Amino acid sequence: MSNEKKRSWAEPYKIKMVEPVKMTTPEERQKAIREAGYNTFLLRSEDVYIDLLTDSGTSAMSDRQWAGMMLGDEAYAGSRNFYHLEDAVREYYGYKHIVPTHQGRAAEHIISQLMIEEGDFVPGNMYFTTTKLHQELAGGTFVDVIIDEAHDPESEHPFKADIDLSKLENLIKEKGADKIPYVSIATTVNMAGGQPISLGNLKEVRKLTQKYNIPIVHDMTRVAENAYFIKQREPGYENKSIKEIVKEICSLTDSATMSSKKDALVNIGGFLALNDDELFDKARNMVVIYEGLHTYGGMAGRDMEALAIGISESVDYDHIRARVGQVQYLGEKLLEMGIPIVKPIGSHGIFLNAKKILPQLSQDQLPAQSLSAALYLDSGVRAMERGVVSAGRNPDTGEHNYPKLELVRLTIPRRVYTQAHMDVVAESVEAVYNNAKEIKGLKFVYEPEYLRFFQSRFEVL
Ligand code: P61
To answer: What does pTM read for this prediction?
Structure first.
């Protein structure tokens, strides 16, 4: 261990194929961002130099995964790749049944429709955009029961995704256990900055929910990254493997939704995993309406094969150390430069504190949206708004939701960029930070009804 501290280490792979990226001029970027309505989701990727919009579906697959693509069994029913995927889910996650879906939100759709009834409440460790929307569309109301520290970018709490047990129990007592179809637990919590939940807390949540007979639905999109933090930070887990920790997390939950486009190292795919036989029957029946037959659920055979292999690679210690290590590298660089970011540094990206960087803007002037546009203008680095625009409107009052966290996410794809890319990103953030006084706010000029951050357009104030 002491050797590990003193010596440098590098990514556990070498590069076999490259994809050129285009450098742009300030004039080209000015034109591109104006045409995109100052929304980085509306930029063409060809106009982007370093793409940190998301780690979703943007990973580089391994040679083993590409080889797996050639073994695709594209049968409509009973594809061999489905059975490999089912085996992988059972071996690495321990869930009994799997229903493949085209991506994570499709699994959220199915579980929400099956479990939530009009007037129900769904507690969770902070909202996620698609998860919350599907809960609402099914007639439920999301209730945030994460610890307060999660809403404070400065708090160095090691497990900011922990559930506040008294918030949870108070909700159960106030609404009644029969109004709570399940508790929603994400590993890690995206909107809090890629923060982990501890196994100690999850065990307590399990005890409490069992007392009231309430199941736990696990958003396991980044469960291996969560397990890495547990190994590093939670006493008693330092000698456990990532695989063991992942399996222990899953064993404390009843069902899971997965966006395989993150942890599991594929460009498309997802699944719903279930232990309950009856619920599985219902989910298997519903998937044929919206996704496809229950042995492909919207995925090609080749993609299921790449996913089965990706799951095994995702729990490899050297992989996960390098993945999270690269994010830590960028975060530490920004901290050294004095840039306000969410602390502790998370697992999948760096979250800039736009409220602090642009104190001249009120939240109505959309600081995080403005900051992400400014960063693109400086260098062609594409980031994502995670503030008032992402939080949407209250479905009852129509007012903006005003989240405490007003952030810009620099999300690092897995196995894609080098340390030099991280240096370029850090220098660009520093340049924008030094010039922050000049950055103006934005106003909405177009706003769609659902998940508005994807397609809204803005103008400079
Ligand atoms: C992302 F701006 N995440 O982080 P799907 N749960 C969790 C996710 O992170 C997640 C999904 C469920 C994305 C893509 C994305 O507001 C946004 O496979 C913890 O994308 O359907 C996705 O999985 C949904 C970006 C999604 C967004 C929603 O970049």
So the answer is: 0.97
